[in-house]
Each structure stands twice: as C-alpha cells, then as structure tokens.
Amino acid sequence: MAAAAATIRGAVPVAERRSFWTGTPEIYFAKAIDNSRLVKVEDLRRNREMKQFGTVLALLFLLVFTYTWQHFKAIEYGYQIESSKRELSNLTEMNRALRLEDASLRDPERIDLLARRMGLVPPEPGQVIRMEGSGSDAQGPVMASNAPAMVVAGQ
Question: How far apart are CA 38 and CA 47, in angstroms?
Fold first, then answer.
C-alpha cells in the first residue's frame, strides 16, 4: 500500500519525502448505548455535602448582597445629606435677605416719606382715639363684649 501511494505521489522515495500529516485519521463510529437498565445509587454523604455547600453559598451571597446594599445606601444618604445642607444654606440666605427686606420696608422714615409723597399728613390732636384696654394689658387676651361702641364722625 505504501508503494502504491508512492507511485501516485510522484514516485518520491519515503526517506526524501517530507510528510505534512502525521498520525492516524480520526474516525468516529456512532454506537447506541442503552442506559435504561442502570440504577443510580444515592450517596447520602454527597447529598449532605451538597446541601451544606448550597447553604454556605446562599449565606455568602446574602452576606455580600447585604454589604453591597448597605454600602450603596450609605452613599445615597451621603448625597441626600449634602443636598439637605445645600438647601439649608440656600434657605438661610433667603431668610436673611427676607429679614433685611422686611426691616427696610418697616423703616418709619421710609413709611413717612412715602406717606408725604401720597399727600398724607400727620394726624392732628384729637383725631387719634385710643381704644380702652390698649394700655399695659395689650399682650393679654381680649374678651369680646356687647358694649355699645362710640362712633366719631370724621372732620
């Protein structure tokens, strides 16, 4: 058979020829195997080991998941705290500006100047009527009464 192959390939002696392929060809034959009569014997020790391994793996996963969740929550709370601090700073600044504006609007000199521009004049003596109970008791509660009120006609 080797001689026939040599004559087909050009009659080159085997010693001089270099072969590109070495080894035997890979030939696979399909064989039907019937495992229906095999019975699996349960290994109790292996089952127990697998249950322990699964339990340990589940606990490890739970531990890692809890740690990760806790870590991300801490980061989220840090962002919320910084946001709250920034908001508090903005609100404090706004409160300060509003108090300053309130103080400037309540300035008696400014109110007097605006009143004079609108043509208002200071009240003359007798035009201002003080209501009773407006003395030292001004901070306490006032009881309603059914006393007749005095009406003063404007001049």
Answer: 20
**Predicted structure pTM score:** 0.45
**Domain count along the chain:** 1
What's the gap between Cα 26 and its chain centre?
Answer: 61
| Amino acid making up residue 33 | I
CA 69 to chain centre: 12
| Token code pair at residue 35 | 């495992």
Residue 126 lies in a domain: no
Tokens for 49, please give them. Answer: 């080991």
Is residue 14 situated within a structural domain? yes
Q: Does any domain span residue 145? A: no
Count Cα neighbours of 34 within 13 Å in the Cβ-side half-sphere: 2
For residue 122, tell me if it sits in a domain.
no
Per-residue confidence in pLDDT tens, the chain, 155 aa: 555 555 555 555 555 555 666 677 778 888 898 888 888 889 999 999 999 999 999 999 999 999 999 999 999 999 999 999 999 999 999 999 999 999 999 999 999 999 999 999 988 888 888 777 555 555 667 677 777 777 666 55
Tokens at 55, concatenated:
């339990």
Domain that holds residue 93: 2-117
